Amino acid sequence: xxxxxxxxxxxxxxxxxxxxxxxxxxxxxxxxxxxxxxxxxxxxxxxxxxxxxxxxxxxxxxxxxxxxxxxxxxxxxxxxxxxxxxxxxxxxxxxxxxxxxxxxxxxxxxxxxxxxxxxxxxxxxxxxxxxxxxxxxxxxxxxxxxxxxxxxxxxxxxxxxxxxxxxxxxxxxxxxxxxxxxxxxxxxxxxxxxxxxxxxxxxxxxxxxxxxx
Length: 213
Prior knowledge:
The chain is of the alpha+beta class. It has helices spanning 2-8, 15-26, 33-43, 46-51, 54-57, 65-84, 95-106, 143-152, 173-186; strands spanning 113-119, 125-133, 157-163, 192-200, 203-206. It has a 5-stranded mixed β-sheet, with helices on both faces.
């Protein structure tokens, strides 16, 4: 498989083979194909495997704490690589890179996560912060805290992002009402809410595209 990967790149290997090749380096002297296939069967995709929490990864036979942490390390490196494509650049003209980063960081979280992307007057990313963690279907969000943090960072704009662990990114009534409150709180202080993006396992929804902002 190493030779196939060297000669043909990632297109030469199936998903389970990519994972098998990685696991072979993490678990020496062991057939890692069954482990790779078991991980994909449990979590559905490579994204699901790398997005899964350590506690669930270790439930798969053959995956101990060390291997689970190594898989999470690979996921963290990938997220930082995607984030580096955004830092210091106008985010609104790098929208695909933004969605790719948010999807990698949030799509497979088992709890709701509310993330704030703060932008300067050039719409370049100056901070990426998690404002809150919630349950499987709710995250408490405090509009005053969002605006307060934007003022502390001298941000001119903000993009709201949160995930739906159910996988369905359709906004709820509570999502819509909360977004309107943040927009109304931020506007008098000169802070623009460019968008609110909801991330699901298989896609995303933009409030701006839906004309909800």
